[in-house]
Amino acid sequence: MTLKERIKNDTIDGLKKGDKEKALTLRMLQAAIKNKEIDLKKREEGLSDDEALDVISGEAKKRRDAIEAYQKGNRKDLVQKEQAELAILQVYLPLPLTDEEITGEVAKAIEETGAATPADIGKVMNSVMKRLKGKADGANVSAIVKKMLV
What we know:
Distance between the termini: 45 Å
Protein backbone atom coordinates (compact mmCIF):
# COMPACT_ATOMS: atom_id res chain seq x y z
CA MET A 1 0.00 0.00 0.00
CA THR A 2 1.40 3.38 -0.98
CA LEU A 3 1.58 6.29 1.41
CA LYS A 4 -1.09 8.09 -0.60
CA GLU A 5 -3.45 5.09 -0.33
CA ARG A 6 -2.80 4.85 3.40
CA ILE A 7 -3.71 8.52 3.86
CA LYS A 8 -6.90 8.03 1.85
CA ASN A 9 -7.90 4.98 3.91
CA ASP A 10 -7.15 6.81 7.16
CA THR A 11 -9.27 9.76 5.99
CA ILE A 12 -12.21 7.44 5.37
CA ASP A 13 -11.60 5.77 8.73
CA GLY A 14 -11.60 9.17 10.45
CA LEU A 15 -14.89 10.09 8.80
CA LYS A 16 -16.48 6.79 9.81
CA LYS A 17 -15.36 7.21 13.41
CA GLY A 18 -16.52 10.84 13.55
CA ASP A 19 -12.99 12.19 14.06
CA LYS A 20 -13.50 15.49 12.23
CA GLU A 21 -10.08 16.90 13.04
CA LYS A 22 -8.27 13.87 11.64
CA ALA A 23 -10.47 13.79 8.54
CA LEU A 24 -10.02 17.52 7.86
CA THR A 25 -6.26 17.38 8.38
CA LEU A 26 -5.88 14.38 6.08
CA ARG A 27 -8.13 15.96 3.44
CA MET A 28 -5.86 19.03 3.53
CA LEU A 29 -2.89 16.70 3.13
CA GLN A 30 -4.53 14.93 0.18
CA ALA A 31 -5.13 18.33 -1.45
CA ALA A 32 -1.46 19.27 -0.94
CA ILE A 33 -0.41 15.97 -2.52
CA LYS A 34 -2.71 16.55 -5.50
CA ASN A 35 -1.31 20.05 -5.94
CA LYS A 36 2.23 18.63 -5.95
CA GLU A 37 1.17 16.02 -8.54
CA ILE A 38 -0.16 18.80 -10.74
CA ASP A 39 3.01 20.88 -10.25
CA LEU A 40 5.20 17.90 -11.21
CA LYS A 41 2.85 16.84 -14.03
CA LYS A 42 2.36 13.45 -12.39
CA ARG A 43 -1.41 13.50 -12.08
CA GLU A 44 -1.83 10.20 -13.89
CA GLU A 45 0.84 8.11 -12.17
CA GLY A 46 0.82 9.93 -8.82
CA LEU A 47 3.67 10.77 -6.50
CA SER A 48 6.17 8.22 -5.26
CA ASP A 49 6.28 7.61 -1.52
CA ASP A 50 9.42 9.76 -1.27
CA GLU A 51 7.70 12.65 -3.04
CA ALA A 52 4.61 12.26 -0.85
CA LEU A 53 6.89 12.23 2.18
CA ASP A 54 8.34 15.56 1.02
CA VAL A 55 4.83 17.01 0.94
CA ILE A 56 4.04 15.67 4.41
CA SER A 57 7.33 17.04 5.76
CA GLY A 58 6.51 20.44 4.27
CA GLU A 59 3.05 20.44 5.82
CA ALA A 60 4.49 19.43 9.20
CA LYS A 61 7.04 22.25 8.97
CA LYS A 62 4.23 24.71 8.29
CA ARG A 63 2.52 23.51 11.47
CA ARG A 64 5.71 23.86 13.54
CA ASP A 65 6.26 27.39 12.20
CA ALA A 66 2.63 28.31 12.93
CA ILE A 67 2.91 26.92 16.48
CA GLU A 68 5.96 29.10 17.08
CA ALA A 69 4.21 32.19 15.69
CA TYR A 70 1.03 31.58 17.66
CA GLN A 71 3.02 31.06 20.86
CA LYS A 72 4.68 34.45 20.34
CA GLY A 73 1.23 35.96 19.79
CA ASN A 74 -0.11 34.24 22.93
CA ARG A 75 -2.84 32.41 20.97
CA LYS A 76 -3.11 29.18 22.94
CA ASP A 77 -6.26 28.10 21.13
CA LEU A 78 -4.51 28.18 17.76
CA VAL A 79 -1.38 26.58 19.21
CA GLN A 80 -3.47 23.60 20.34
CA LYS A 81 -5.15 23.31 16.93
CA GLU A 82 -1.81 23.32 15.11
CA GLN A 83 -0.30 20.84 17.58
CA ALA A 84 -3.21 18.46 17.01
CA GLU A 85 -2.74 18.69 13.23
CA LEU A 86 1.01 18.17 13.60
CA ALA A 87 0.41 15.04 15.69
CA ILE A 88 -1.79 13.63 12.91
CA LEU A 89 0.84 14.39 10.25
CA GLN A 90 3.70 12.92 12.27
CA VAL A 91 2.11 9.47 12.04
CA TYR A 92 3.18 9.41 8.38
CA LEU A 93 6.73 10.67 8.95
CA PRO A 94 9.69 8.47 9.88
CA LEU A 95 10.87 8.75 13.47
CA PRO A 96 13.16 11.76 13.87
CA LEU A 97 16.83 11.09 14.47
CA THR A 98 18.53 12.00 17.73
CA ASP A 99 21.20 14.70 17.84
CA GLU A 100 23.84 12.00 18.21
CA GLU A 101 22.64 10.21 15.07
CA ILE A 102 22.54 13.51 13.17
CA THR A 103 26.07 14.33 14.37
CA GLY A 104 27.28 10.96 13.05
CA GLU A 105 25.72 11.60 9.64
CA VAL A 106 27.17 15.13 9.56
CA ALA A 107 30.62 13.74 10.39
CA LYS A 108 30.31 11.30 7.45
CA ALA A 109 29.23 14.14 5.15
CA ILE A 110 32.14 16.33 6.27
CA GLU A 111 34.55 13.48 5.57
CA GLU A 112 33.00 12.72 2.16
CA THR A 113 32.99 16.35 1.01
CA GLY A 114 36.37 17.20 2.49
CA ALA A 115 34.85 20.22 4.24
CA ALA A 116 37.07 22.05 6.68
CA THR A 117 35.83 25.63 7.04
CA PRO A 118 32.51 27.41 7.57
CA ALA A 119 32.62 28.27 3.87
CA ASP A 120 31.90 24.58 3.17
CA ILE A 121 28.60 24.52 5.08
CA GLY A 122 26.57 24.48 1.86
CA LYS A 123 28.38 21.40 0.50
CA VAL A 124 27.92 19.53 3.76
CA MET A 125 24.24 20.51 4.10
CA ASN A 126 23.53 19.39 0.53
CA SER A 127 25.15 16.02 1.16
CA VAL A 128 23.66 15.33 4.57
CA MET A 129 20.11 16.49 3.83
CA LYS A 130 19.84 14.03 0.96
CA ARG A 131 20.38 11.22 3.45
CA LEU A 132 18.32 12.68 6.29
CA LYS A 133 15.35 13.70 4.16
CA GLY A 134 12.25 13.63 6.35
CA LYS A 135 14.18 12.27 9.32
CA ALA A 136 15.64 15.48 10.73
CA ASP A 137 14.74 19.16 10.88
CA GLY A 138 16.94 21.22 8.57
CA ALA A 139 17.47 23.95 11.17
CA ASN A 140 18.74 21.41 13.69
CA VAL A 141 21.05 19.82 11.10
CA SER A 142 22.34 23.26 10.11
CA ALA A 143 23.16 24.14 13.72
CA ILE A 144 25.10 20.88 14.13
CA VAL A 145 27.00 21.43 10.85
CA LYS A 146 27.93 24.97 11.87
CA LYS A 147 29.10 23.78 15.28
CA MET A 148 31.27 21.07 13.73
CA LEU A 149 32.83 23.34 11.08
CA VAL A 150 33.74 26.25 13.35
